[in-house]
Amino acid sequence: MLNIEEGKIKQFLQQNNPYALGKLLREIENRPESSHRIMRFVYGYGGKAHVIGITGPPGVGKSTLIEKLAGHWAEQGLEIGVLCIDPTSPFSGGALLGDRIRMQNLTESDRVFIKSLASRDAGGGMPIYAFDMIKLFEAFGKDIVLVETVGTGQLEFRISEVADTVALVTGPGTGDAIQTIKAGIMEIAELYIVNQSDRPGSEETVRDLKMMVSESVGKRWVPPVLETTATKKRGITELSEELSRHKKYLESSGLWQERRRERNRKFFTRLLFEHCWQKINKHINHDQEIRDKISQVEQEKCDPYSLLHEVLSATLKIDG
Description:
The chain is α/β, with parallel strands linked by helices. The protein has helices at 6-15, 18-30, 32-42, 62-75, 98-102, 129-139, 175-184, 202-214, 236-253, 255-285, 288-298, 304-315; strands at residues 50-55, 80-86, 112-118, 144-148, 165-170, 191-194, 225-227. The protein is globular and about 65 Å long.
């Protein structure tokens, strides 16, 4: 573990190499108290990476698709950061590293950096420090940052809060999944990808998705429906071109800056909420009188509003 000092942070940023990036990423993940010092420096370095969220249910080949995409861009001379949000290990509390294992071919490229990150039961599937890691990738000059969600079978809605472009990956014969998609992600997915398209049921899934997209009348950007077979590199070039087209659309329409401002605002709000809660929770845990009153609230012997006023006054100096 690093003993992070401001001089060391600046040195790592100036080195701009994988070793320094890895050290800072681990520090952000493992020592939240250090992340504040790191990020104060990082924000001065800017960065304009295209952040692409890859989401969808498990088993549809998201990791293989990302591996081929990242490899394709690396061959073009682009610098790629890959952030894989993995399930949390029940033993260590860290990432299970499944995605990193499936992307081993990328480790041979010095243009691609992969970081596995434990979800740690984060609401919406997105740990708060994922935002910091994306900013760090940008500070280290990455042109594209790919963020893969954990894929729990539910659509992780917070991917739209960190990504410029959200791509939903599904597989053939997922008729039931289409209804879930319509209910939950219609407003945040900019591209639909039917991977493993060489399998039976692919044509029907593509047809259903295109029919669903056709219902989104009045939108300036109509999400394309793409077919890929990542294991055979089929459709990777076309997918890369569509992702680039969406970035150009965002820039020309003014949505690029608008989304960035909205993203920064939401991140600050979430950061503020989490730190306020940490302060409140620490106070509660060290104040027996407050804990006794919470017990009274549980038994309806004390109203929660009076206790709320007391806790806020004591911890955040907020009156009422």
